[in-house]
Inverse folding.
């Protein structure tokens, strides 16, 4: 890990500036080839033109501010960590599916649901989306809302809630974008929401009638 | 070789179907909306993915398998989002979550 982060700093100029765009273009081209199934020149040229169009549109999208004024900047992801992370996530999906299936089939159904709220200092909106999605895919937890830095999570049993607020996964997601981050700083201000008033206050209400 | 692929196909498709069945049982058995979202969002995701992996084994290594793999990826991305959207809407509209009563143990 140490060497790779060093080499990333050395890469400057064209490749570093347009890393995200190149990566996106390659992925889109691969998608085109898989879905079309034709590998002759004509179809590849059509594909390249479509890829160019989509990349151009997406490039402009990243400068459009979101509803709360933040810019969508998520392109500086560390690629090899992302790949490792995806495999880890796949394993988590298997674990969580089996776990919830076990809870379902258990005759007494030993669940004790609770709603937890915590703050996570992730660097950009895309990382928050990744974390929210990953929380939903890990055993016994379901992201209910993301508001600014606060995550509201529904947990099925208490052990899962403790595992969640240990900040392990938050740090994993944080490491996709930052070179260093510890579980302690990624997960703070933990509170278990008991009353329904607190819960209703915790969700964002901007689009409510 | 074909026989081995067929064995894997049967195993994965059966597992996937079993998980989807358990997911549906969970939707009926769990006590409240949020835990039902757990059942539909996770167990079903795993079931569909296993099913598709089984179909990929059946197809062997070709373009159709890659397309099936893409379906699995999209299910993995969209299913948590759907569960999240449902749960968030429910919370905003004041659906109360079920809590275990201490007396019932």
């Amino acid at each position: 890990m140490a060497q790779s982060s060093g080499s990333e700093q050395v890469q400057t100029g064209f490749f570093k500036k347009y890393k995200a765009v190149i990566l996106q273009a390659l992925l889109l081209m691969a998608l085109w080839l898989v879905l079309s199934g034709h590998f002759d020149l004509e179809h590849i040229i059509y594909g390249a033109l479509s890829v160019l169009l989509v990349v151009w549109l997406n490039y402009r999208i990243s400068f459009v501010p979101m509803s709360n004024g933040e810019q969508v900047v998520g392109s500086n992801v560390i690629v090899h960590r992302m790949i490792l992370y995806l495999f880890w996530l796949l394993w988590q999906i298997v674990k969580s599916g089996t776990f919830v299936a076990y809870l379902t089939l258990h005759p007494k159904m030993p669940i004790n649901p609770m709603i937890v709220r915590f703050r996570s200092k992730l660097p950009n909106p895309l990382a928050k989306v990744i974390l929210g999605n990953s929380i939903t895919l890990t055993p016994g937890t379901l992201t209910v809302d993301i508001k600014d830095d606060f995550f509201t999570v529904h947990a099925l049993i208490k052990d899962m809630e403790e595992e969640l607020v240990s900040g392990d996964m938050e740090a994993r997601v944080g490491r996709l974008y930052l070179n260093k981050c510890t579980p302690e700083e990624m997960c703070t201000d933990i509170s278990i929401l008991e009353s329904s008033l607190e819960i209703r206050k915790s969700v964002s209400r901007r689009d409510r009638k | 070789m074909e026989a081995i692929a067929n064995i894997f196909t049967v195993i994965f498709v059966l597992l996937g179907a079993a998980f989807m069945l358990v997911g549906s049982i969970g939707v009926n058995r769990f006590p409240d909306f949020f835990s039902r979202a757990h059942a539909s969002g996770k167990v079903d995701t795993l079931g569909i993915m296993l099913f598709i992996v089984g179909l990929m084994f059946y197809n062997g290594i070709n373009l159709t398998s890659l397309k099936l793999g893409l379906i699995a990826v999209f299910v993995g991305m969209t299913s948590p989002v759907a569960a999240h959207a449902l749960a968030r809407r429910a919370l905003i509209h004041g659906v109360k979550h079920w809590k275990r009563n201490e007396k019932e143990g």
User: Anything to note?
Assistant: Chain B has one domain: 2-92.
